[in-house]
């Protein structure tokens, strides 16, 4: 059996998937209607909308399957998300990649598979709309176009969920998206006994930038700071803009001291950007760090956010007092 390679953008791809908040959610008629449609159109016993997580494929909608998920390593959909087109296996029993796959030799006894990769609005492939038969088959060009058309409708539904969790100006997670991702990341850290920390960040004098230089420059400041955050922090960290000039970062696998080091890297990156920029103002920010998971000490997300927020505003207050003094 040949396992599908892991795509190089998999961390971002999985983050985009989880940003939708769809994983492990209840059945939804918006998606069930598409599996019913392709089952009827192609006269197959099995149709599914499969979402490929880090270690599993989970079925948001399924007909003809008894299980709600399978390991990613044995999934056909893990191969399908590597393609930009429909991934087809006409006869799995004679295909060296799949002939000894447990999904072929055992239930559901797959012989034919066709999966259309479902892209999110930012291009990451989140899963597939797939049809499965227990007999070998081929698809005509008309069949392929039909599967593409329905697949694009499913991708549109996923994209709308993703957009609801994304800040349109910066492309970062918004408050809803951050809460969805952070809760999953914290649960993972707690299960693994790993630390996690949260940074609350706030641009200094942002109102003055808007008032003195205009809202276009204000938007530029927000976008520029967002790009610095993405450069400084790791792909595994959850970076968000909850609103206004506030930003939040969840650092997985990082204790409070390591988060402070990352915070200093951000200060250095901002200072370097200011030296190279032609902006009529300088970027500056205040930040607060809180440890939220140490394997022994696990706080609720809202408690951690409030603590980090309080520390960030304490730093901002101290800066104001120093200027006044």
Query: Uncertain regions: pLDDT < 50 for 5+ in a row?
Result: none
> First CA to last CA: what distance?
71 Å
How big is the Rg?
A: 23 Å
What is the mean pLDDT? Answer: 90
Report the CATH architecture of the largest domain: 2-Layer Sandwich
Query: Tell me, what's the shape?
Result: elongated
The level 1 CATH classification of the largest domain is: Alpha Beta
CATH topology of the largest domain: Beta-Lactamase
> What is the SS-derived class?
alpha+beta
What is the N-to-C succession of helices and strands? HHEEEHEHEEHHEHHEEHEH
Total of DSSP H or I helical runs spanning 4+ residues: 10
Total number of strands: 10
Read across the widest sheet, the strand sequence of neighbours is 3-2-1-6-5-4
Largest sheet: 6 strands, antiparallel
Structure description:
The structure is a single chain. The radius of gyration is 23 Å and the shape is elongated. Helices cover 44% and strands 21% of the residues. It has 2 domains: 10-163, Beta-Lactamase (2-Layer Sandwich), CATH 3.30.450.40; 175-324, Alpha-Beta Plaits (2-Layer Sandwich). It has helices at 10-19, 29-42, 77-80, 102-105, 141-163, 175-192, 206-213, 215-232, 256-276, 301-324, and strands at 46-52, 56-63, 69-71, 87-89, 112-119, 125-133, 196-203, 238-243, 246-252, 285-293. The longest helix is centred in the last third of the chain and has 24 residues, at 301-324.
């Amino acid at each position: 059996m040949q396992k599908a390679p892991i795509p190089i953008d998999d961390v971002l791809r999985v983050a985009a998937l989880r940003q939708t908040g769809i994983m492990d959610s209840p059945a939804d008629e918006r998606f069930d209607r598409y599996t019913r449609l392709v089952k009827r159109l192609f006269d197959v016993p099995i149709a599914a909308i499969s979402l490929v997580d880090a270690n599993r494929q989970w079925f948001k909608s399924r007909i003809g399957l008894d299980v709600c998920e399978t390991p990613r390593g044995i999934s056909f959909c893990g191969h399908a998300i590597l393609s930009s087109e429909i991934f087809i296996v006409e006869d799995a029993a004679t295909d060296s990649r799949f002939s000894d796959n447990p999904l072929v030799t055992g239930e559901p006894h797959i012989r034919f598979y066709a999966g259309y990769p479902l892209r999110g609005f930012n291009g990451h492939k989140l899963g597939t709309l797939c049809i499965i038969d227990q007999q070998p088959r081929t698809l005509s060009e008309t069949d392929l176009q039909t599967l593409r058309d329905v697949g694009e409708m499913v991708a549109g539904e996923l994209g709308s969920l993703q957009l609801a969790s994304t800040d349109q100006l910066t492309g970062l997670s918004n408050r809803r998206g951050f809460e969805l991702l952070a809760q999953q990341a914290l649960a993972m850290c707690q299960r693994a006994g790993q630390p996690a920390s949260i940074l609350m960040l706030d641009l200094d004098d942002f109102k003055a930038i808007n008032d003195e230089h205009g809202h276009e420059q204000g938007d530029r400041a927000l976008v520029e700071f967002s790009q610095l955050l993405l450069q400084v922090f790791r792909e595994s960290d959850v970076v968000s803009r909850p609103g206004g000039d506030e930003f939040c970062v969840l650092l997985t696998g990082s204790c409070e001291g390591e988060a402070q080091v990352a915070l200093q890297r951000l200060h250095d990156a901002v200072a370097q950007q200011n030296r190279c920029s032609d902006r009529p103002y300088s970027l500056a920010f205040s930040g607060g760090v809180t440890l939220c998971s140490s394997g022994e000490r696990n706080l609720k997300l809202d408690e951690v956010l409030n603590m980090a927020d309080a520390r960030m505003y304490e730093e901002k207050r101290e800066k104001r007092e120093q200027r006044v003094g």
